[in-house]
Amino acid sequence: QVQLAESGGGLVQAGGSLRLSCAASGRTVSMYAMGWFRQAPGKEREFVAAVTGSGGITYYADSVKGRFTISRDNAKNTVLLEMSSLKPEDTAVYYCALGRKDTSFAYRITLYLPRAYDDWGQGTQVTVSS
């Protein structure tokens, strides 16, 4: 059974940067879609970014486009989320999620939905102070 472990969260001032890491164990995830979601207090979990397996197509929420970058480190079986120009509204618990090997268009267009993913990490807190 695959396990996902996020790390790299913390407290940062507005305008700062953080790099989140999601390490997978129990399965090689290089061919699987991977995603990042976040959930702020009192709000629903929302999509942040995703990357497909083969081909490495990336998707971003409009709110983070141009500021966040999702990437893979296949040698470490890890997915990264580089966050820059952070804003107080980025404050949330960030979750890593494991999707599927499916690279079809029909699947890719669902990657902004939690139901596209089968396994989730425990989350890491990101707090951006103003």
How do the strands and helices of this protein lay out in sequence?
Blueprint: E1 3-7, E2 10-13, E3 18-25, E4 34-39, E5 46-51, E6 58-60, E7 68-73, E8 78-83, E9 92-98, H1 105-108, E10 119-120, E11 124-129
Parallel strand pairs: 2-11
Antiparallel strand pairs: 1-3, 3-8, 4-5, 4-9, 5-6, 7-8, 9-10, 9-11
Question: How would you describe the overall organization of this protein?
Answer:
This protein has one helix at residues 105-108, and strands spanning 3-7, 10-13, 18-25, 34-39, 46-51, 58-60, 68-73, 78-83, 92-98, 119-120, 124-129. It has one helix and eleven strands. Strands 2, 4, 5, 6, 9, 10 and 11 form a seven-stranded mixed sheet that branches. The protein is mostly beta strands.
Radius of gyration: 14 Å
Main beta sheet strand tally, sense and closure = 7 strands, mixed
SS-derived structural category:
mainly beta
What is the number of helical segments per DSSP (H or I, 4+ residues)? Answer: 1
Q: Which regions have little confidence, pLDDT < 50, spanning 5+ residues?
A: none
Order of helices and strands: EEEEEEEEEHEE
Helix content: under 10%
Which short descriptors sum up this protein?
130 residues; mainly beta; four-stranded antiparallel beta sheet; 1 helix; 45% strand
